[in-house]
Amino acid sequence: MRRWKLEEAKNRFSELVRRALAHGPQLVTRNGRDAVVVLSVQDYERLAVPRDLVDFLRQSPFADALAAGELDLERPRDLGRDLSLRSVRRKS
After folding, report:
1. How far is CA 20 from CA 16, 41, 46, 58, 71, in A?
2. CA 33 to CA 14: how far, in whole Å?
3. Which residue range is the domain that position 37 belongs to?
4. What are phi and psi of 35, to 5 degrees?
5. Handedness of CA 17, 18, 23, 28 (dihedral sign)
6. Is residue 80 part of a domain?
């Protein structure tokens, strides 16, 4: 991601937009600190539009780890505890 000083970004705004479209997000700094990111609508929508849960999980790094056998999601078959379900009387 290229860094642009605010003054440079203002003076070369057309180039800034072209680079955002062609090369991805562009970072603009103000007073030496990161201030804003200029990005294409396509990049913005990819980040901002909610996906459904299935697509999110398929694209997750955990999906790759699970497919590679690096992630074990098996749980022991635990039947829980024996509980007494007797009624408890309250004193009035």
Report:
1. 6, 10, 14, 27, 37
2. 22
3. 3-67
4. -120, -55
5. negative
6. no
CATH code assigned at 13? 3.40.1620.10
pLDDT in tens, 7-43: 999 999 999 999 999 999 999 999 999 999 999 999 9
Distance CA 26, CA 43 (A): 12
How far is 20 from 5, CA to CA, in rounded Å?
15
The verdict on residue 84 lying in a domain is: no
Q: Does the model's pTM come out above 0.85?
A: no
Residue 35 lies in a domain: yes
Closest of 47, 49, 55, 46 to residue 63, by C-alpha: 55
Q: What is the CA radius of gyration of the chain?
A: 26
Residue with tokens 């039947």: 79
CB 65 within 8 A of CB 59: no
